[in-house]
Design brief:
Metallo-beta-lactamase, Chain A, six-stranded mixed sheet, alpha/beta, single chain, 211 residues
Length: 211
Amino acid sequence: MNREETIKKIHWLGHDGIRIDGSTVVMIDPFKISALKPADLILITHEHFDHNSPEDIDKIRKSDSVILADANSAKKLKGNVKVVAPGDRLTLKGVEIEVGPAYNTNKDFHPKAAGMLSFVFKLDGVRYYHAGDTDFIPEMKQLDVDVAFLPVSGTYVMTADEAVQAAKAIKPKLAVPMHYGEIVGTNEDAMKFKKGLEGVIDVVILSKDAA
């Protein structure tokens, strides 16, 4: 993985919204976005309004866009929507996708039984992991990824300290904090995450992308 080339392709759109500008444009959980580049593949982690926002999805959905979502999220969406669940594997638009779980272990906002999602996807030779809304869960120890997008805000998801432990278990080449700066969490959480991994894992804090 070429670090600089990979970072150039990654755009943080605020909260959990991520766009990867590869040979296929992949968007995850767009919410309150101002960056309107169309996406080929749209991944939705769960039904909560700040992750499954039909209004925002419509801003970047093309006639041939494919949307992957859990069953509850899919009910709110239109277009080419494919329902997936943890354990599913598929290839769409040249992107290899592994669907995983996302859930809380010490709170009840995202119960495991709800079947909420995380995604590992391979794009242009790089394996990305978008954790969704989750705590540090045992399944993370089995991951083999280059880039990990991890929530750091606490309250509904992992705290920055818990995300540090998750990153150490995952061992990505690059970790990117998310889930802060919108509903809960601040830049201080992102900085705490980065400091906690100093000398261990390369952490990049991205500026919110408006283009």
